[in-house]
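Complex record, two chains
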Amino acid sequence: MTDKELAELIFPNITKTPEDYEKIYPERKLESGAAVSRFAPSPTGFVHMGSLLTTVIERKIPDETNGVFYLRIEDTDQKRSVENGIKGIVDDLKNFEIKIDEGALGEDEEIGDYGPYIQSKRKEIYECYAKDLISKGLAYPCFCTPEELDETRNLQELNKERIGYYGSFAKCRNLSNEERAERIKNGEPYIIRLKSPGNYENKVMFNDLVRGKIVFPENDLDVVLIKSDGLPIYHFAHAIDDHLMRTTHVLRGEEWLSSVPVHIQLFKILGFELPQYAHLGLVMKIDEETGAKRKLSKRKDKEAAVSFYHEQGIPVEAVKLYLMTIGNSNFEEWLNQNPDASINDFKFNFKKMSASGSLFDLEKLINISRNYISRLKAQEVYERALKHSKEFDTEFYELLTKYKDYCVNMFNIEREQKKPRKDYAMFSEIKGYTWYMFDELFTGDINYEFQSINDLEEIKNILKVYLEKYYNEEDDEQTWFERLKDLSEELGYAREVKEYKENPDNYKGHVGDISMVLRVALSSKSMTPNLYQIMKLFGRERLTNRFNLVINK
RNA sequence: GGCCAGUUGGUGAAGUGGCUUAACACACCGCCCUUUCACGGCGGCAUUCAUGGAUUCGAAUUCCAUACUGGUCACCA
């Protein structure tokens, strides 16, 4: 029996040939140098920080070269696939404003000419290539059971031999086609394996975009091509899909590095041109329990999920900015020099990518977010706060809606200037910083944080005298402060802090102590933004009411 | 265990043989500015680049060994 006949027996329904697919998926008509990259997750849940970093760069490369970025779903392991997995991925990308040019949009929806973009829908394509390989004697059916495989593995371990299905351990490799045919006809379950032409003594070399030249022993493992469920294994699907979809750049985590020899071999056997590989360092974290460095985990680490940032109200731009600082070591410096530029203006360079895995630094991300938010216009802050609270804090949402102009003005305190205030790092903490600005929230048992002046009678007196003689709603800031000084003087406090420090015995305190009393009476907090502006926003009536709360204590 | 990669301060890192008595940023700590806070300013924070050896007039930078960390050795991706 010939190999061709065996191939026919195994895949009788496959009529297309690899040549047909070459025609169906022709080379892309792109300008030279245009990169085609892809995000190829398995639908096992949300997108996590590590993949997001990869994705940001995968999107960037085509952006810089007028190329194509597409989304391919790798769902060849139905056991791991999760309900709504594709939707989750598509939504996460959308949330992070990463646009795809081609690919899956949902279970049954997609755009682009190189689909299907969901691997489980590409079964017959893989079968076609498997058939071709079998007919050329480059692949064969294997009848070994999982138990047998376990057994040889144990044996290899025991004898300290290299583990795997190769050489004399590849029991089904040298079966005759007649025997193969017979066992298939008898209904024995089987898988398709590559008949590896490699020799472990030989070396293969390839150039990784981030790591440079890497030398490996040649692959001699008869790796699985098609599983017993009829779907391909990653390696096989990777070679076929990335070739047919005309991918030029494959970016993935370094956990894939050691399978590169298999991929090189597969591409060669299939007659495909090898894409450029970039194996990225993993995003790590120190495990709280063991103290050891480990990969950021979807299950254990809340900050691994993109939803975490959404809930906290950390802008996606800030997350991307942070990711880029991990991605390219010169990015941060560039950002500092071009604070208002967009990521799109930055030129990505694989050489500036660290090969070692980096620890995820939430502190730093928060700092970036703080800076980002500080540069936003008040109106923009308002809109984003509104959007965030709508989803996560109804009470605050209602206040923001009810007092729109007031809130925009509030957000504008010490904003929209060269060195803006940096109070908020995330939208979820805005309410905690501004609650006292709303009478609705300024209720119950208020804890007043009075400082150096904390005698209640003295405080009441200061407030009364201020309201009676020195408060004028119309004052500009300078006049307002002059009046505070006048008040201080009348009550025995120094007009200037310096004067007080020079002669502390001559005064009860200084103007700073007086303004602190006003600040705390107004807000209950000892730390607030510019007091003059807050008072201005309050207006006479509300200000008086607030002060009376203390005066009537 | 085999194979592969990585190793510069608490963190991200610059650095590709002399300009480095190791940038920059985050964090932290002082001081200053200031009616509070924030901002801002100034200063501190690795005598040393995992360790040992070699090459060199000269090494974080080249080479070799060792150690450690991570990855991988599935009909998972």
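Note: The two ends of chain A are 102 Å apart (CA to CA).
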